[in-house]
Write a structure and sequence with these properties.
It contains 2 helices and 4 strands; from the N terminus they run E-H-E-H-E-E. With 74 residues, it is α+β, with helices and mostly antiparallel strands. The chain has one domain: Translation Initiation Factor IF3 (2-Layer Sandwich), CATH 3.30.110. It has a 4-stranded mixed sheet with strand order 1-2-4-3.
Length: 74
């Protein structure tokens, strides 16, 4: 079974908008769907905020210095 993925490219936003847009997106994330967020850098404050809301985030740094974070319900 493949996971549905919603993409959010937040690389063009200035802080704190990437965090705000990501947290806004998880509020409507359907069960079983992954949110994949692309940011210009590792989102330092994101994981603590996701935990509070019942989500898990796993970030992977990219070769260009950006970061992709995979978010799913716990």
């Amino acid at each position: 079974m493949s996971t549905s993925i919603i993409e959010l490219d937040a690389r063009s936003f200035e802080p704190p908008m990437p965090l705000m847009k990501t947290l806004e997106a998880v509020t409507t994330l359907p069960e079983g769907v992954e949110l994949r967020v692309h940011t210009r850098w590792r989102p330092a404050l994101l994981n603590a905020e996701l935990e509070k809301r019942g989500f898990i985030g796993e970030s992977q740094e990219q070769s260009d210095g950006s970061c992709i974070t995979h978010i799913r319900r716990r």
